[in-house]
Design a protein that fits this description.
The protein is mainly alpha-helical and 84 residues long. It has five helices and no strands.
Length: 84
C-alpha cells in the first residue's frame, strides 16, 4: 500500500517535462491511482521508470510495450482518457 508521502513522490515523478505525458500522468496520480488494485499501482510505478521517448510512443499509440505489465497500465491510462 502506498502512503500519502509515496503518492506525493509519484506525483512529482509524473511531471516529465513533456506536456503530452504530464497531462496524462499527473491527473492519473491525483484522480485514479488510489483506486487501483495494488498490482496495477505497482505497474504504474514500473511505468514511471521508463524512458520518456518510449512512453511518448506508447501513449501516442504508435507501438505497444513488449512487457505485458507495462502494456496493461498503458491501456488503463488510455482507457481513462479515451472512454469507449
Amino acid at each position: 500500500m502506498y502512503s500519502d508521502e509515496d503518492i506525493r513522490r509519484l506525483r512529482w515523478q509524473s511531471r516529465r517535462g513533456m506536456l503530452e505525458l504530464d497531462v496524462l500522468f499527473v491527473p492519473f496520480v491525483d484522480e485514479a491511482f488510489r483506486q487501483l488494485p495494488s498490482e496495477d499501482q505497482d505497474r504504474f510505478v514500473k511505468l514511471l521508470a521508463c524512458e520518456d521517448q518510449d512512453l511518448f510512443v506508447w501513449f501516442m499509440q504508435r507501438a505497444e510495450p513488449e512487457d505485458p505489465d507495462l502494456a496493461r497500465i498503458v491501456r488503463i491510462i488510455l482507457d481513462r482518457v479515451q472512454p469507449g
